[in-house]
Amino acid sequence: MSQMKSIMAIVSIADRYIWPRNKHVRTFGSFKSFDYAPFNQEIDQSFQNEATRYFHNGPDFEPIQDSDPAYGEFIFKPRSRTINKWIGGRFNATRATINAPPLQIWEWTFLAEQLKKDNFIPEDRVMSALSNSGSLILNKSFEPIAMIWGGEPYTYAHGLKDATYASPIGKVLRDIEERMNWEKGSVSMVLPVQEKSRRPIKKLPTSVDITEKTTVQDVKNKLAQQAGGMDPERLGIFDPENKKLLKDRRALISQHKEVMAGKEILIKDLGPQLSWTTVFIIEYLGPILIHLSFLFISPYIYKNAAPLSSSQKLSMAMIVLHFIKREYETVFVHRFSLATMPLFNIFKNSTHYWVLSGFNLAYWIYAPTSYTARSSPTIDLVNSIGIALYVFGEISNLQTHLILSKLRSPGGTERGIPKGYGFGLVTCPNYLFETIAWVGIAFVCKSWSVGIFIVAAYWQMNQWAIKKEKAYRAEFGDKYRKKKSVIIPIPGL
């Protein structure tokens, strides 16, 4: 059985080119195909001649008309199989791409996964799968002894047309391992590489070798090394059909149907990259430093500047603590599916935080003419409501981020359906609680600048939430409970 599980059988060019054989034979056993579903392709007519030449001219697969041990070949005919010779079992099939230099051929592969021993099989009978090319012939001990690989039309009295050839299993294994680049059940193939960069990548190879276990990150690492040791994160891999970036670095190339259908990958130099963690730390560090700096630079900015009032200091504490919490989450909570982003993004993203929540808020909140500068230092009802909203929003936001973090393993890229604490109400409760926290800050600051920031931030978060809802529906289908409200729960929706 261990040998059985290690065998991959080579199959016919396409079922439309092979005579249907032995459909009346009693089925034995339960078999499952080796899982190469991502390689599924319709057979291309252009490959027919090359594939036929390979099957009929290979040194181990030379067809002969009679059994001859000297050639290591066996011939089996349907009539002989139906008269006390063997009982059939069936393999299910998926198609796979095999790189067989100098030819690249569409073939089928099989792997027997399970055999069921039934009492009705006499010990003296030799068993086999149905005579589709690629089926294994088994002896009475369930050991593979040969593989059926092809056939020729031959008319019999009962109407079946068939004469089937098979090779000893030892020759089949040697051919698989040596001539077809397979190792212990692993298929290897070559994908052409096409560049779509405006600026050519020096030394970029024209092809890359992959197996069914090769990930997107593996391809990037291989190409980057061959291209002179460039940063692999600069390389973007796109599928040739819809030109979309393959974002999941841990995804198997073989699982991308568009790539396998196009039989090539597109490569683009994405430019200098920064890790998401680095970008987030820089983004959030700006507002922290800007707000704290107004403790010292106010006399140099405002005329008749006075020490900050208690309300202004409270506002500063709430804003600074908000971004310190974000820094903590960036380092210890968030798990990013993408490793990097373009270097330019740090300037775009920092503009939002450094300008809108940094200079914009600080300049107006800490001004001598602001409401907080003139307000009573005591904690009144409005401030109390603001503090309560702020604390609730920040703690709840952290809780939702912890839930999201647990959906992904450390360093992983997998996605799941978030559940619990707010996720039953809206798509992104983390954005809801973020908004509540900032409304609390607005109650304390009483500045129109905070209102502008809330509107801008909510608009952006709403765009992200809509995309997230669409992504959940597309990826999880009926498993995901669709939501009409993405941030703010609306009764009746």
List the helices and strands and how they pair.
Layout (H helix, E strand, L loop, with lengths): L1 H4 L3 E2 L16 E2 L19 H10 L16 E3 L1 H4 L6 E2 L4 E7 L2 E8 L16 E3 L6 E3 L5 E8 L12 E5 H11 L8 E8 L11 E5 L4 H11 L8 E4 L18 H6 L2 E5 L3 E3 H26 L8 H23 L7 E3 L2 H21 L5 H4 L6 H26 L22 H17 L2 H29 L17
Parallel strand pairs: 2-4, 4-7, 11-14
Antiparallel strand pairs: 1-6, 3-10, 5-6, 7-8, 8-9, 9-10, 11-12, 13-14, 15-16
Provide tags for this entry.
alpha+beta; Ubiquitin-like (UB roll); 13 helices; elongated; very-long-chain enoyl-CoA reductase; NADP; lipid metabolism
Task: Describe what you observe in this structure.
The chain is α+β, with helices and mostly antiparallel strands. The chain folds into three domains: 2-179, no CATH class; 188-271, Ubiquitin-like (UB roll), CATH 3.10.20.90; 274-479, no CATH class. 39% of the residues lie in helices and 14% in strands. The strands form four sheets. Strands 2-4-7-8-9-10-3 form a seven-stranded mixed sheet.
What is the number of helices? 13
Low-confidence region ranges? 1-132, 150-166, 179-187
- Residues in helix, %: 25-40%
What is the count of distinct domains?
3
Please provide the count of β strands.
16
Subcellular location: Endoplasmic reticulum membrane
Catalytic activity: a very-long-chain 2,3-saturated fatty acyl-CoA + NADP(+) = a very-long-chain (2E)-enoyl-CoA + NADPH + H(+)
Domain 3-oxo-5-alpha-steroid 4-dehydrogenase C-terminal: 340-489
GO molecular function, one term: very-long-chain enoyl-CoA reductase activity
